[in-house]
């Protein structure tokens, strides 16, 4: 009660005093008084808050995971990643696909925590990248006592007589954001990994035709098929131990996906491979755009793949992440038999139809506005690709092979080894880091 009286008196005093007339010492005293009252108020509120918190815990039932078996499964996850900071959990933001997935998994009590979930992801999509075919492997709570992937953890009990599995997709979709949906699940053996057992990955990249010569892009893309050193078509991740850049591309297809014949026709580039490097697809698309625009010859792809002749990557901007989609992750049929829930699929379709309608309306509205503006100009403007490649477009184009080059792989390894030596020497003067140890 006394604290309330003091607060009222302070407010009255504040109303009656012009702060600009107070001296420095008086202002400091006033601040100290305010801080004191804030502390008193916090102390008054704390017991009530703690009591309510304790009552909530007392009344809520503690979920007993030990009453359930576990099942090792794959989850087929689709997401529109435009407004997310990427798939993988990050320290500086909670706006990632993975963070939302685990939030949903914990809310539905399908996992107790990430650390004990035996979790693997198939791909690490970057900020703004979407996926129709992302796959994760994980141990989930199960109603079953036997079956593929089912096991009883140490200390857990088994419930007899249960023949119906949890509707994993259905319950997860009810708590996930509208951009993220579980399409299906599949029981797999306990040691199965979504990452290491994936046979191939397919990326789609969507873009408007604009003035691109699609046939020249197809010719250039054929050089990429097969196993090559793609160090000039990626962002080198030496800091994370990636020093080998050989990857195998199985096929590349570049085809229209609508009936239009003008610059607004939409094209899909389909890239199939076993595994991909950091930013590899976006770098490939950027180079193919240069070929399609007539700025580079189709042979430039072959030149960039010749790392003996061109060991240092020329500087160029990557293609935008927004049109990129990890569309399919493929597994052996004998290992993976997807289970689809009709009700869950209807829920997915309904939600994605809503997103489609919103974005289609925006596109149609913009197109109608463009049609009317274009009638006012005699000359034709074809800038549909503007914004799909990062970097400032120079007034005079400089061919790739004449541009300033990045560090070579060997220089990057030596640079990173030198930095590590400095860090290690500060902690352990007797330990040595060499470039050869990093590249081996």
UniProtKB/TrEMBL annotation:
<dbReference type="GO" id="GO:0009982">
    <property type="term" value="F:pseudouridine synthase activity"/>
</dbReference>
<dbReference type="InterPro" id="IPR041707">
    <property type="entry name" value="Pus3-like"/>
</dbReference>
<dbReference type="InterPro" id="IPR020094">
    <property type="entry name" value="TruA/RsuA/RluB/E/F_N"/>
</dbReference>
<dbReference type="GO" id="GO:0005634">
    <property type="term" value="C:nucleus"/>
</dbReference>
<dbReference type="GO" id="GO:0005737">
    <property type="term" value="C:cytoplasm"/>
</dbReference>
<dbReference type="GO" id="GO:0003723">
    <property type="term" value="F:RNA binding"/>
</dbReference>
<keyword id="KW-0413">Isomerase</keyword>
<dbReference type="InterPro" id="IPR020097">
    <property type="entry name" value="PsdUridine_synth_TruA_a/b_dom"/>
</dbReference>
<dbReference type="Pfam" id="PF01416">
    <property type="entry name" value="PseudoU_synth_1"/>
</dbReference>
<feature type="domain" description="Pseudouridine synthase I TruA alpha/beta">
    <location>
        <begin position="220"/>
        <end position="331"/>
    </location>
</feature>
<protein>
    <submittedName>
        <fullName>EOG090X083V</fullName>
    </submittedName>
</protein>
<dbReference type="InterPro" id="IPR020103">
    <property type="entry name" value="PsdUridine_synth_cat_dom_sf"/>
</dbReference>
<comment type="similarity">
    <text>Belongs to the tRNA pseudouridine synthase TruA family.</text>
</comment>
<dbReference type="GO" id="GO:0031119">
    <property type="term" value="P:tRNA pseudouridine synthesis"/>
</dbReference>
<dbReference type="InterPro" id="IPR020095">
    <property type="entry name" value="PsdUridine_synth_TruA_C"/>
</dbReference>
<keyword id="KW-0819">tRNA processing</keyword>
<dbReference type="GO" id="GO:1990481">
    <property type="term" value="P:mRNA pseudouridine synthesis"/>
</dbReference>
<dbReference type="InterPro" id="IPR001406">
    <property type="entry name" value="PsdUridine_synth_TruA"/>
</dbReference>
């Amino acid at each position: 009660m006394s604290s309330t009286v003091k607060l009222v008196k302070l407010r009255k005093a504040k109303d009656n005093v012009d702060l600009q007339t107070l001296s420095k010492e008086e202002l400091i005293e006033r601040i100290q008084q305010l801080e004191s009252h804030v502390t008193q108020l916090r102390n008054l509120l704390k017991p009530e808050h703690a009591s309510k918190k304790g009552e909530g815990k007392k009344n809520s039932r503690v979920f007993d995971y030990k009453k359930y078996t576990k099942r090792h499964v794959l989850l087929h996850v689709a997401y529109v990643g435009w407004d997310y900071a990427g798939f993988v959990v990050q320290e500086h933001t909670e706006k990632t696909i993975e963070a939302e997935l685990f939030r949903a998994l914990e809310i539905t009590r399908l996992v107790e925590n990430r650390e004990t979930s035996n979790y693997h992801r198939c791909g690490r999509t970057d900020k703004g990248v979407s996926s129709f075919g992302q796959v994760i492997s994980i141990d989930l709570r199960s109603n079953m006592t036997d079956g593929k992937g089912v096991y009883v953890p140490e200390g857990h009990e088994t419930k007899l007589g249960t023949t119906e599995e949890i509707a994993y997709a259905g319950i997860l979709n009810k708590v996930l954001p509208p951009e993220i949906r579980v399409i299906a699940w599949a029981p797999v053996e306990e040691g199965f990994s979504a990452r290491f057992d994936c046979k191939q990955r397919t990326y789609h990249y969507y873009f408007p035709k604009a003035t691109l010569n699609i046939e020249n892009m197809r010719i250039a893309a054929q050089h990429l098929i097969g196993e090559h050193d793609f160090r000039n078509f990626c962002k080198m991740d030496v800091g994370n131990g990636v020093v080998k850049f050989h990857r195998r591309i199985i096929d590349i297809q570049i085809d229209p996906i609508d009936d239009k014949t003008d610059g607004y026709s939409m094209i899909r580039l389909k890239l199939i491979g076993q595994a991909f490097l950091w930013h590899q697809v976006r770098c490939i698309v950027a180079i193919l755009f240069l070929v399609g625009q007539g700025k580079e010859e189709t042979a430039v792809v072959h030149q960039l793949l010749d790392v003996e002749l061109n060991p240092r990557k020329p500087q160029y901007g990557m293609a935008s992440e927004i049109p990129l989609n990890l569309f399919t992750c493929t597994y052996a049929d004998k290992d993976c038999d997807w289970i689809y829930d009709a009700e869950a699929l209807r829920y997915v379709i309904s939600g994605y139809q809503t997103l489609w309608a919103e974005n289609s309306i925006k596109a149609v509205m913009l197109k109608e506005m463009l049609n009317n503006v274009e009638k006012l100009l005699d000359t034709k403007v074809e800038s549909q690709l503007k914004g799909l490649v990062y970097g400032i477009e120079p007034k005079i184009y400089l061919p790739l092979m004449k541009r300033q080059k990045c560090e070579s792989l060997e220089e990057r390894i030596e640079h990173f080894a030198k930095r590590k030596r400095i860090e290690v020497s500060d902690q352990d003067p007797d330990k040595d880091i060499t470039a050869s140890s990093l590249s081996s």
